[in-house]
Design a protein that fits this description.
The chain is of the alpha/beta class. It has six helices and six strands; from the N terminus they run αβαβαββαααββ. Strand 1, helix 2 and strand 2 form a beta-alpha-beta unit.
Length: about 140
């Protein structure tokens, strides 16, 4: 553990995704997860906060992305590529849509995986983190 990580005061923030645009919301969430909103920010240390996203099913996508944006995954077997549109993800697994958007904005290394674990996404309004007393994170619509 880095000394900056030991000094970091962890906060819990909550974001209501209903009516928010996915990309703009994801960039703000990634900034808070990374710790760039703090004076103690260090690029190689986890100084960020926890973020809870509720109402993930109400997120909006700008333009024609709902039908045109395609998410791919591969099973590492020949012919094992699978694809889903953003509309499919929003209908079936809206949590994954937000996870993928935020994870794409984090570093692609061990630190990024550690930061992505501090993101909690729920499709409805209920979440099990009331004991942490999360503060409202203001994100413009």
């Amino acid at each position: 553990m880095n000394t900056k990580e030991a000094l970091a005061q962890r906060e819990w923030y909550i974001v209501d995704a209903d009516g928010k645009i996915l990309g703009r919301m994801a960039s703000e969430i990634a900034r808070v997860l990374r710790g760039k909103n703090k004076v103690i920010f260090t690029p190689n240390a986890d100084t960020g906060d926890f973020v809870i996203v509720i109402n993930a099913k109400g997120v909006k996508l700008s333009g024609h992305k709902l039908d045109d944006k395609i998410y791919y995954r591969h099973s590492n077997y020949p012919g094992g590529i699978r694809s889903r549109t953003a509309a499919d993800l929003l209908e079936n697994k809206p949590e994954d849509l937000i996870h993928l958007a935020v994870k794409g904005m984090l570093p692609k290394n061990r630190l990024g995986r550690k930061l992505a674990a501090k993101l909690k996404v729920y499709s409805g309004a209920e979440h099990p983190h009331e004991a942490q007393k999360p503060k409202l994170l203001a994100i413009r619509a």
